[in-house]
Amino acid sequence: MNSSDNFFEKVYEVARLIPYGRVTSYGAIAKYLGAARSARMVGWAMNNSGKYDDVPAHRVVNRKGILTGKHHFSGSNLMQQLLENEGISVVENQIQNFESLFWDPSKALK
DNA sequence: CCTGTGACATAAG
DNA sequence: CCTTATGCCACAG
Question: Class of A3-102 per CATH?
Fold first, then answer.
């Protein structure tokens, strides 16, 4: 295990902790990891998540609840399908009732 | 060490 | 919310 995996691994660790039917934001994860300004790295880590298992990247969206990263999934609508499969409503790439579904690791895991 | 990069966040218009 | 611009930072080469 490489030391460089530390940050990424922590991102995946938090991602796996996201409860079923819930979502969170890149910034929230970054903040929880103590790197609030590295939200971009969280997204990048998700990009590498393809190398890992059990990393529900589809539960991670930007602060507006928009599926900004859906284009990185296999299909064009896979991410939305996964979310809807968990009972989350997605319309026009945006999660409905996002604030209620939002899961903040800083609060949940504190 | 330097440069490029990125699935963000925030501010301003 | 949209677009444009800026900051920010960890990683890859």
Answer: mainly alpha
